[in-house]
Amino acid sequence: MTMDDGKLYVLKSLEKKNVYCTELWINNDTNETFEIEEMFRWGETTLRLTDSEYSEIMQDIEEGNPIVSSEYFMEDQNLDDGCSMDFYGYGNEELVERVEEMWDNGMYEAFENAGFYQEDAEVIYHGEVTLEEVKDEE
Questions:
Q1: What CA–CA distance (Å, rounded) separates 78 from 66?
Q2: Which one of 1, 21, 45, 112 is separated from 89 by 20 to 30 angstroms, measured CA to CA?
Q3: Is 34 part of any domain?
């Protein structure tokens, strides 16, 4: 997609604690994988959408479906006031304990120092949202 493709829209949460970001972290040396799921009180994401993508999101909004903003071209994002964080190790509780300890002792830098890298991230808006076109300032 180029700057000329699509229009800019701002997706905003209207209810507290309804925006989630899930990060997938992988360590190829140890074959370990974990996820971090963080809940935010508020979120606002600027998306560049084609007409068909806009229609798709509007249908999801009307049907009350979650909106996965990371599936679209994101121009900007502001997730505000993280209020909950959970770690998942796909059944590996020892890994979860190590990850929690790394987080307490150095956060993301500790993950990277241990050989983990972020493979993917998904941002999902649940509940009521608005999607408004960004008007050009003239």
A1: 18
A2: 45
A3: yes
Mean pLDDT of 23-38: 96
DSSP 108: H
Dihedral-angle region of residue 93 (phi above 0 means left; psi in -120 to 50 means alpha; beta otherwise): alpha
Pairing state between β 32-49 and 67-68: unpaired
As a whole-number percent, the residues of the chain with pLDDT over 90 amount to 92
Predicted confidence at residue 2, as pLDDT, reads 52
Give 28-81 as a 3 state SS string: CCCCEEEEEEEEEEEEEEEEEECHHHHHHHHHHHHHCCCEEHHHCEEEEEEEEE
Query: Cβ–Cβ contacts within 10 Å for residue 128, how many?
Result: 12
Cα separation, 131 vs 97, whole angstroms: 39
Its domain, for residue 126, covers 7-133
